[in-house]
Amino acid sequence: MLFKDLPIQKKLMRIILLISGIMLSVICTAFFIYELYTFRQAAMQKLSTLGKVIATNSTAALAFDNKKDAYQILSALKAEPHITVACLYDKDNKLFSKYPESLSDSIPAAISNQQGYHFESSYLEGFQPVVEDTRYLGTLYLRSDLGEMYARLRYMLSKIFQKSISKPILVLAETAKTISVKRDYSIRAVKSGDDELGSLTDSFNNMLGKIHEQNKVLSEYNEELARNIIERKKAEQEKIKYTQDLERSNKELEQFAYIASHDLQEPLRMVGSYMQLLERKYKGRLDKDADEFIHFAVDGANRMKQLIRDLLNYSRMGRESHKAEVDVIEVLKEVQSNLHASIKESNAVINFNGMPVINADRTQMLQLFQNLIGNAIKFRRDATIPVINISATRENDHWLFSVADNGIGINKEYSDKVFIIFKQLHDKSKYSGTGIGLAIAKKITEQYGGKIWFESDPGKGTTFFFTLKNKI
What we know:
Low-confidence stretches: none
Radius of gyration: 34 Å
Number of domains: 3
Oligomer: single chain
Shape: flat
Number of strands: 12
Helix content: 40-55%
């Protein structure tokens, strides 16, 4: 339909959208122009100031015809990576000294009297007279590349891409983590757009809404049960029904977390693969800042991949369980084999005996002991050989296990935080990992009708205790 045939309301709407688009384009263009202008002015001012300082320091070298001192003065420009050419000319405009020393012969051996600073197509250059009192001694020529400007533009673009791609994923992950910690299903994730991530956020929020509504209804029934004893039996039946609905919804939420984490791996793998390809292809061919930005992007993608992989493992816990008789001694031997590299590196000593045979899933027992022993090795004290003692005691209808080490220990103030998923108490640069190991250990022990806790003396060591029922 032609524009002239549209209803007046649609005409006005299209005109408003067109004007808004034009204004947005103009604002963006003005912003980039302003950034470019301010950078050029700052770069010119910086080069001018540098030129004045070097010119002042070069007066004695020109006055006494000391080329060695002149070269040493120009060599100080090594601290300015963007200065590519520096030449000092005497009062007869003949080349007196240059930096770097291997500078090509394309630089003129003499120059006419020029002053001031200006931009060429790919660099900034300037001519600074060298004057002592009122006596003209020569001219300083400086040339700077525009690498700093390009790095600034790349940084701005990387921030824009980060906002549009990784930020929505991080916001969704942070919301899920907050809900897990606070158990507050009234929290909602912020939707960033109408793309696939927007649809994922809508589904996540809808699921939370159902759980929140069922929690609310369950609470109302509990209050009604307390007020009216005559309706107790009926209320109990309703409570059981809504509890079952809540458990089913929680299982659906776990299933959703599994599916969401699984589906996020492919686009993240693609982002990581292309960033690694950029790093291999262009490392060393761009400036130092570009290499650093690409390294940050690759590292961020790898850490996000590990987080998603850990989330998948956590969501699978309890979904795939094959129970049979498990010899704990054989499990510990396999753990030692899996941790062979870190045990050899740290010279760790692992002691155990009197381990029972229990009815459990072998893979889950392997995860449980490997997380605890791996942490005991990882969080060891400097210049101290890790010694890990593992014991088991039968108490009534369950086994009590302990894993004791002589590591750095844990402060009591963190007793409620160490078992929270993705919660790390130490600097990531010193201790690797995602903070999910103890959360998995807690989930496994609870699945077997047990519990896990620790006792610690900071600076001396920590003992983790956990219980497993004899028959599950």
